[in-house]
Fold each of these.
Amino acid sequence: MRQQIARLTEQLLTLGGQDQSAPDVVKELQAQFELEFVDLQRESRLGEVQPRGSSRYGALLGDGDESAKPLEIHGQSIRNPYGILELQCIGRASSHMACSAADESSSRGRLAMPCGRRTLLALFFGHIITVSPSAHAGFPERPITLIVPFGPGGPADTFARIIGERMSQSLGQPIIIENMAGAGGTTGIARAAQARPDGYTIAIGHMGTHGSAPATHPNLKYDPIRDFAPIGLVAAAAIVVIARKDFPADTFQEFVAYVNAHQDKVTEAHGGVGSVSHTTCALLQWIMRTNTARVAYRGTGESMKDLVAGQVDFGCDQIVNVVPQVQAGSIKALAIASADRSPALKDVPTATEAGVPKFRVSAWQALFAPKNTPPEVVAALNDALDTALDDRHTRGRLMELGSVIPDKADRSPAALQALVQSEVARWIFVFRGISH
């Protein structure tokens, strides 16, 4: 191996400044010795190599220790136009390993000797190099955009603002809410999927956008399972069947009977095809064996306005969006689709109590980053979310709205990935049944 490196190094030296030939030699080094070009989007464990002068190429050869922490390396001058630069660990500084650089031009081709946790062999073309710390070591260094795929005032928007406020304190940077409504939330989520995977653009998704969407949108522009790096589960919320305040039914049993008898006159409002309000009410109507007119809105914030105004008759919505309106007497809450009554709406019976045990469903909200977001960035965001959910004030605000805070074990990226996979399969099965 040493002879091969020496031979290739000699070829570099004979190029005499003809940079256009250098890539061919580097490719051979890369193929034979598993050299890796520094790629900050993939290899955050390595420092960023920034050649200066006439140099344009750089590569690093590692000892295969994938668990090594990001390196903090200070640049050194080398005397030769081309040469082998050996980087050796000399200690640790905080979470990084401190390394020194030594000119090895006098013994070209010599392998880097083992030293502590990791030894790197760096091959550079040029006079001066500088190596900076990992690009993600200081994340975040600027504000983070949190895409809410619905308009202001809906459940997703409410969750995002409550969680985002506390997360920004932990991260030391503002979290800016960007509402992008349309197509049951899939417009905003598609935008998030295509964002740069650096952690500075994330999104809040839910049972609709990352669960039922593949079943309700045949031309969906993203894959909920493959196109995202899950950050963590935010909360779960019960689904409540609601109606305008003057709807001619005061109980859930009366509601079911009235809708069956007046299907041609009753209207259902939802937040867009594929949204939580759409999928859960589709399930309800399938159970009731009804098929009323359905009015789609750009989010449940808009549909709630028309329900309060009496322009539509009923809907299904997350409890977080319902509690303030029910308490104000603006709408009726007829049943809750959970196993138990909610402390936030103690007088509202469960669907099981009301004689419709099959209608049991809850909605969840979670944070997602684009796929290929570096694991350490996802970890930083997950830590901030975890801290927010443990914060007494934040928990209180969420629970006042009827939310269920996930346990620690359910907040991890892996747990969220498993949830998305199960939800996609579940809703494909449900909608197959509804369509037949």
Amino acid sequence: MRLRIVRLLLLAGIVARLQPGCVGAQDVTAKTVVASPVNAECCGPITPAGAQLVQFLDSLNVDHLWTAHEHIDWETGEPTPGHGHEPPTHCSAFVAAAGKKLGIYMLRPPDHPQNMLSEAQEKWFESDAGREDGWKPVSSPKEAQVLANRGDFVVLVFGREHGSGHIAIVRPAVKSDKALAEEGPQTTQAGGHNFSSGTAKYSFVFHPGVWPSQVKIFAHATKFEVAVQ
């Protein structure tokens, strides 16, 4: 009788190990989840310099300034009286104003009018003048997010020969590989919609099909990186 019971227990153990919900299968699943790129951080942590850049971008209050369809002071984003020949949105003026506050030059008023400014900025970034002023091309959206997280001033720009382009700032953020692939780097912008924190995919929503293949990326070192060294 005892021998029969032992045999039954051994058989039950073998069957249990063969069931699809067994411990071994759960272990494999857990390891798969841990190793999955969905949960992997793609672009490194936000450094102290990157945290200072976030504070700076938030201080610009772009959600309430550089408002579309308003006549504005390009440096402050405050509405001003009068009616000029300004563009309906102020993406390039906002980015230029942010750069000026950081002590970083890019093509801006009065060196170029606000009309067609993002198109001219794209060409300027690629020029000898842009390189001499410290701007460098960035090879990928991932590199853009990495550099922003380290405190670099990074811009995404789409210029077109006819019609309006767009430009936005890359905002430091912790993102997964999946999120980066689906929506691109985090952004701060003025435009048809102003926001302190959005995504590259949404930044270029009014230019269907241009993200990411037609968007160029450039970066410049900031005073925040020097301050924390």
